[in-house]
Amino acid sequence: MTKRGGMAVLGLAVTMVALDAGSVAAEMRVQTSAGEMQVTGIVEGLVAPWAFDFLPDGRLLVTEKGGRLLLVADGAMTEITGLPEVADLGQGGLLDVMVPADFATSREVWLTWSGRNGEGLSTMAGRGRLSEDNSRLEDFTTLFTGDPAVASRHFGSRLAEGAKGNIFITTGDRGTGPAGLEAQDPDLTHGKVISIARDGGPDIGLIGWRTGLYSIGHRNMQGAAALPDGELLVSEHGARGGDEINRVSPGKNYGWPVISYGVNYNGSKIGTGTRTPMMEQPLHYWDPSIAPSGLMVYSGALVPDWKGDVFSGSLKLDFISRLDPDTPAATGWAEERIASVATGRVRDISEGPDGAIWFLSETGGAIYRMAPAP
Questions:
Q1: For a FRET experiment, which of 210, 247, 320, 339 has its CA 20 to 30 Å from that of 292?
Q2: Does the 3-372 domain belong in CATH 2.120.10.30?
Q3: CA of 52: how far to CAs of 95, 99, 202, in Å?
Q4: Is 327's pLDDT higher than 70?
Q5: Which residues are CB-contacts of 179 (< 8 A; sequence separation ≥ 6)?
Q6: pTM of the model as a whole
């Protein structure tokens, strides 16, 4: 059924075609609301991959949590050196990678990672210049260091380039849970969207808030997509339920851990419930949780029916979520769940320069390309 059909949750049939799970040369066909899609393996053999981004010529940069940045071209991988020291502990490690729009002239590559900071770990972000031979990051500089915490979880850590050239950084609450209010503290970086200038200086200063803080009250944002109007779309993990999609505006409070559509892992209520004055409501939420990761607003280049739709991976339930903002549902937006053997723990998703939907499977250690079947 097409997106114009008005169904809140769309059914999915999956057909496997000559699939060899150990080979990225294999292809499979998946039936979706927009017709049959062909999923093609691009590269395999990745170890705990976390993120990818495209260079202007279509080659890929891929991060592995253990600390490797890889250049992928024609199915071959080469390691790039010159990276910062990474603390690969718990949910931490080498995390996001972002290629800014002016790469052709700047050759900048941005990274986020978890790094040691005193007795704890911090979400960090910085940039280096990719050498002309593509072998190393030169003059790598750390430009953001979040407040430390002892816990090795909830680092957030997505990057997005804003419409005015600023860099958005998402952070997590560092696992303090509903009992902790760090995400509500406007003087701490936990559970916040940060906005910095390209040189690392603060891009925003709001009265009563630490300089550079753009929004507060988030739990663990593992998806981010910059919007043309300068604002940001994020996905974030709830506890037991209550994952959210939020449109983030400067100076707004998104509620965690005061309000949530989920409950604690022990089943107890979180905060005051689902609503309270002066705290924002999500555009969409999931209950039970799907553990959303990666976020993309699709242009419709190859699939016009999906223009403007929002895509996220699921770490928990092994599918790609397609959300249709034009079709309302009880939880916000109508959802289609696209699943195949390739969609195990989809950690990142992006529209490629070719208009296809590319996604990273943590389970398979592979990157795939999805496009209409020929």
A1: 210
A2: yes
A3: 10, 9, 26
A4: yes
A5: 257
A6: 0.93
